Amino acid sequence: MSFRGYVEKGVVVFDEPTAIPEGTVVEVVVCEVSPANVPVGLSLWDRLKDVAGKA
User: Fold this and answer.
1) d(CA 4, CA 15)
2) Which of 4, 23, 31, 55 has its CA 20 to 30 A from that of 37?
3) Domain extents for the chain?
4) Alpha helices (H) in 1-55, listed in sequence order
């Protein structure tokens, strides 16, 4: 059995409604990753600059 979907805010969202029971063990296989599918966010420096050099 397989389902297609995408990741949104770290959660897998299926393209179609599914009836998978709670607690079912699943395996996620990434089919494709292209630069167009990767969200653009802050760089590592931008995320850590407030704490850089404080340790």
Assistant:
1) 6
2) 23
3) 1-55
4) 44-48
